[in-house]
Structure formats: structure tokens, C-alpha cells
Amino acid sequence: MQELSEGINNLKEKNYYDQIDIYVYDRTISCHPLVDACNSLIAYRLLEHIGIPCVGKRVLDIGSGSGQMARFLKGIPGIAVEACDIDPKAKEYFRMHPELKDVPFHLHDFMRGSMPGFYDAITCRGVYHHIPKRQRPKFLQIMKAHADVVIVADEGILEYGNEEERKRNCDNWYGFVITEARRRGIDDLALIEAEFLRHEYLETAEDGGDYKESPSKFLEDASNVDLAPLSLDRLGDWKIGGGFYVATFR
Predict the structure, then answer these.
(1) What's the pTM value of the predicted model, to 2 decimals?
(2) Architecture of domain 2-249
(3) For the chain, domain boundaries
(4) SS3 for the chain, per residue?
(5) What pLDDT, on a 0 to 100 scale, did the predictor assign at position 19?
(6) What confidence tens digit (pLDDT) does each residue in 77-112 have?
């Protein structure tokens, strides 16, 4: 942990997302079995609700980043995949990448205006905990207004009864993620996750847009805008303080 602490001290207090190459660690961590399981469950729930065959069905991936989810969805025959992200670097990445350059890309802040058109489904993986907590119900509401089916997948911490228990769960979950990152040689990811954990402790994570919550809190967000998922699946061994969840709305 001393190495992590020294590394964190070298990070800027603000804009800490900019301190690492998100595309390098994104592509690397995508091979993790928990992420593979999450992608598979997204595909399962997607096909369950849009049906097979799905020729011509339009699916928008929000917070597409380096295109992990867009590439995965392109592998489902017939689906017309589009991508959306607020980062100009993501748009350039799609434009230059041979596997993504034919995917229509929308450089757009989903919270600041409606997307043109309507989709058969919207997928959103690994984005929810980056949205400030006060804006999360609105984020769900906007997505549901633009698609028949919405699938939200994210990391979550184990349910807790008080703030001390919450911090213990964060310790355990972030510890797992940091250990896995270091095991895979993604040291920059280990540093940035340690920085996220620090913000959790200082209760400044919400302003930074990275604040992990339990699935029950996600359900509260949904209920605040009169939404209820048809299903909420948990993935992973939640005894380590957290895991992944996949929620499906229709």
C-alpha cells in the first residue's frame, strides 16, 4: 500500500481521470472473467427482450469509451450498433479503429440534451458510478425515454447498514480490484482505483463522478423516477465487498 500511496501523491487533485490512458487499461481489464460474465448477461437480457432474429434492431451503447461493448454487440448478427460518449478522444478512437470505424458515433452529453431518434435498446456498462449521485435518477429517466429496453450494468458494493459498514465494503471491493489490476500488470489502474477509494473516504467522490453504491440504492434511484427493473442480476462473489449487477428495464 505504500507504493500506492506514493503514486497517489503524484496524481493531481483534480481531473484524475486524465492521469492514465483509459484505452490501455480498458482493453486489458476487459479480459477479466467478471467482465466477460457481465457482457454475456447483457447479451442474454438484450436478446430476451428484443427477440431473435434481431435484424435491423437499433442498439445504442452509452459511455462507449474504447468500444468494448460496441464491439461485443456487433458480434450479434443483425443488430445495428451505435455508440455515444462525451469524450472527444473516444470519437477519435472509433474513427481510427478498424473494428469500430463503421459504428455511428455520437459525441454527446446524454444529461444535457435528448438524443435524436428512438432505439430498440440502450446498453450502459460501467458508467453509472461515474454519474454524480444526485443526477442518477434523471439519467435513468432519460435513457428509458429513448428506448424500449434499457440495460444498466455496473460495479456495486455489498449492501450496508451504516457508513462504517459501507467503508468496509468499499475497502474490500476496491482492494479486490486493485489486487487484480496489479496481478495483470496494470499499475496505473491500481493507482487510479486507490484514488477513487480515497475520494470515497473523503466523501468527495460524488463531485468527482465516481461513487459506487449498493444495488438497493440503484433501485431507490429508479423508484424516484417511477421505474422498476424487470430483473436485477448479481455477478461475482459478493462476499469480497461487492461485484457486478445488471438491471433491465422495459
Answers:
(1) 0.90
(2) 3-Layer(aba) Sandwich (3.40)
(3) 2-249
(4) CHHHHHHHHCCCCCCHHHHCCHHHHHHHHCCCHHHHHHHHHHHHHHHHHHCCCCCCCEEEEECCCCCHHHHHHHCCCCCEEEEEECCHHHHHHHHHCCCCCCCCEEECCHHHCCCCCCEEEEEEECCHHHCCHHHHHHHHHHHHCCEEEEEEEEEEECCCCCHHHHHHHHHHHHHHHHHHHHHCCCHHHHHHHHHHHHHHHHCCHHHHCCCCCCHHHHHHHHHHCCCCCCEEEEECCHHHCEEEEEEEEC
(5) 58
(6) 999 999 999 999 999 999 999 999 999 999 999 888
